[in-house]
Amino acid sequence: MALTAVILAGGQGRRMGGVNKALLPLGDEVFIERQIRKALPGTNEIIVVSNDEALNRFLRDYESVRIIADQYPGEGPLAGFQAGMAAASCADVWVIGCDQPFLEVSAAHFLLDRMESGAFQAALPVIGGKPQPLHAIYRKETGLIAESLLKKGERKLLALLDNIPWYGVDERQFAEQGISLNFADDVDTPEQYAKASLTLKGVTSFMPHTDRSDRFRRHALQPEEAQRLIKEKVRPLATERVPLADAWGRRLGDNIVAPHPFPPFRRSGMDGYALRTEDLLQATSEAPVSLTVIESLPCGVEPRHPLNAGQATRIMTGGMVPEGADVVVMLEMTVTEDRDGQSFVQIGKSVPVGLNIAEIGCEIQVGEALLPAGKVISSGETALLAACGYADVPVMRRPRVAVLSTGSELLEVGEPLVPAKIRNSNAPMLASLLREAGAEPVMLGKVPDDASEAQQRIRQALRTCDLLITSGGVSVGDYDVMVDVLAAPDVKLLFNKIAMRPGSPTTAALLDGKLIVALSGNPGACFVGFHLFVSPALQKMQQEKPLSPQSFKAFLGRDFPKINAYRRYIRARTELREGTVWVLPIGDDKSSLMTTIVDADCLIEIPPLKEGLERGHLVTAWKLS
Ligand SMILES: Nc1nc2c(c(=O)[nH]1)N[C@H]1C(S)=C(S)[C@@H](COP(=O)(O)OP(=O)(O)OC[C@H]3O[C@@H](n4cnc5c(N)ncnc54)[C@H](O)[C@@H]3O)O[C@H]1N2
Ligand code: MOO
Ligand SMILES: [Mg+2]
User: Fold this and answer.
1) How far is the CA of 115 from the centre of ligand 3 (A)?
2) How much of the chain exceeds pLDDT 90, in percent?
3) Which of 49, 138, 370, 428 has the fewest Cβ atoms within 10 Å of its own Cβ atom?
């Protein structure tokens, strides 16, 4: 695609103290050098519109870069635009401000593609609902319209937009292309310049699109209300069939009903003789009764002969009891003898009817409800399913849950420590928690505190995942990027504050109908948030009951002197002491701690109180599954 780039470098940079912004240093380049380096590979020529000769030395090495002066000097950006258009040799022109150091050729090409799909004369990024006239594509002819506007005294580029048909490309469309949104960010103020320098170092990026004061205005929900909202927004997933051998740990996809009785035949419970109790009525140790053995049955062999009076069948444990028999007498109570090639059994005692025979269906009747959908398949369930012939088992599809960690401070687990950084421990912890909850973690890795990058990864992942969880960036800090990501117009915020500790800024939202739970970055809060707000969603997706963690009453194992304005959920371990249940808070209850997660098997609920609680107080605790 033939494309001219026009860089408008005529501004005064008033808010930057009157410097020419094209000459601002960024890393080891100045803006204009960086822009040329980045724009060259995707364009046929670059035209820099400027009257500043100081720029020359950065341009002269390039054959396809020209510098031209305004035809209407001092008339503002529209004049620069007009001059650039007049000089352009291609029909399509990418117009860039010299203060846009993060320009992106891929974004320019995407805009150009969009414009070609219709009768448009320009294609512009629309960010936060506002068209951005710079870092946009224009047809060369629009220069003539600019000129006529200039003659009417117009100076602003935006005026052009009222006079041409243009196509707007919003954040979402760029994100879908994997294009990071900061390409159009401009540097007008020293603050923005400072942020640009940080972005270059990978520390952060501009996040100018949310009203920062918004993040302080939050309405706190009670934890139960937040849980209710979350459960309301998810549905059970589809089911699939897996071989029984792979079904361990999965959740049943269907109610399982017995397809036949069990045992399916009258089964012997002992190695012995099947016979008729009637025949033993007179038997005593002095005068044992002798019966003719008509058959010897190993397990798995169907009897050939029903029993008549005076007869017995030798039978093994699990064997099928012949018709006519109403008891199995164990071998130890019998004496066997062979006479003339015929076997006889002698028994010296009468026995009650039914002894050692498991009747058909005595364990399971046909049609009986055996296992409910959603039940976790463990050893007992596996045995039942096998007995009922489930070579393939209907199971709930595992929820695919994307895990994204935000934080420029995060290192990969294998990286050595460097000052101010820590290793990402939340993501591996969340992956384990997800596995424990039956889900399939889809690890998206980490993003620096860059809202556009986070947003892009999130949108992409949601296409193939059922749920997305993030950690970090939900509070009120400068780099708390999830706040920006979830402020996008197509995101429906469910809540961003919960009246509890830890994890009060835990946030949930819906995007494309899918749930995003943004957990706190503090490891302890992240852990608690998962159990209280992610687990219930996973349970519902897998039809698992009960739908919330189960509570129990127990004695507080040690004093808890902290005074609480909020309800607290403290990590604790259960202990049985002389037949009573105690719950012991583990370590200090700070949300930043992760050592306290190690032995936690429950959360103690501490209500908001004006004074602490003493050891031995009866408290409510929640079992962690
Ligand atoms: N001025 C205020 N500051 C804070 C408030 C507040 O109300 N006003 N709330 C505090 C509370 S409560 C919490 S909880 C945290 C929430 O923090 P964020 O969710 O925004 O998380 P970050 O700021 O990104 O990080 C916090 C902490 O966690 C560490 N972290 C982050 N990600 C990971 C990870 N993947 N593995 C290990 N550790 C991680 C991070 O380095 C920080 O130390 O905000 C309080 N602040
Ligand atoms: O709500 Mo935060 O987790 O207390 O520190
Ligand atoms: Mg924060």
Assistant:
1) 40
2) 75
3) 428
What is the structure's pLDDT at 58? 85
Question: Tens of pLDDT along 351-410?
Answer: 999 999 999 999 999 999 999 999 999 999 999 999 999 999 999 999 999 999 999 999
The better pLDDT of the pair 92, 57 is held by: 92
Question: What tokens were used for 124?
Answer: 């512009």
Mutation test residue for ligand 2: of 564, 591, 592, 594, the one with most atoms within 8 Å of CB: 591
Q: Is 503 in the pocket of ligand 2 (CB under 6 A)?
A: yes
User: Do the beta carbons of residue 259 and residue 329 sit within 8 Å?
Assistant: no
Contact 489, 455 (CB under 8 A): no
Residue 503 Cβ inside 6 Å of ligand 1? The answer reads yes
Q: Which token pair is 169? A: 């490309």
Distance 480 CA to ligand 3 centre (A): 5
Query: Residue 608's CB: how many other CB atoms inside 10 A?
Result: 13
Ligand 1 pocket test: which of 217, 219, 520, 595 has the largest number of ligand atoms within 8 Å of its C-beta? 520
502 pocket-lining for ligand 2 (C-beta < 6 Å):
yes
Residue 250 pLDDT greater than 90, yes or no: yes
Average pLDDT, the chain: 92
Cβ atoms of residues 429 and 527 within 8 Å: yes
CB distance 92 to 137 below 8 Å: yes
Instruction: List the shell of residues around ion ligand 3, using CB closer than 5 Å.
Output: 475, 477, 480
- In this model, does residue 16 exceed pLDDT 90? no
Instruction: Give 28-51 pLDDT, tens digit per residue.
Output: 888 999 999 999 989 999 999 998
Nearest atom, ligand 1, residue 427 CA? 35
Q: Which own/partner pairs from 317-321 qualify as long-range (CB within 8 Å, at least 24 positions apart)? A: 317/268, 317/269, 317/270, 317/271, 318/267, 318/268, 319/267, 319/268, 320/265, 320/266, 320/267, 320/268, 321/265, 321/266, 321/267, 321/268, 321/274, 321/357
CB atoms closer than 10 angstroms to residue 565: 10
Q: Which atom of ligand 1 is nearest to the CA of 480?
A: 20
8, HSE (Cβ side, Cα atoms, 13 Å): 30
Asked whether 473 lines ligand 1 (CB < 6 A), one says yes
Q: Please tell me the predicted confidence (pLDDT) of residue 214.
A: 61
Closest Cα to atom 44, ligand 1: which residue? Answer: 475
The reply to whether ligand 2 has any atom less than 6 angstroms from the CB of 504 is yes
Strand partners, 166: 122
Report ipTM (2 d.p.). 0.97
Nearest CA-CA partner of 92 in 46, 163, 140, 44: 140
pLDDT tens string 40-81: 989 999 999 998 888 888 888 888 999 998 877 777 889 999
Question: Is 0.80 surpassed by the pTM of this model?
Answer: no
Q: Higher pLDDT residue, 238 or 12?
A: 238
Residue 79 sits at the vertex; the CA angle it makes with 74 and 85, to the nearest 5 degrees, is 145
Q: Is the CB of 525 under 6 A from ligand 2?
A: yes
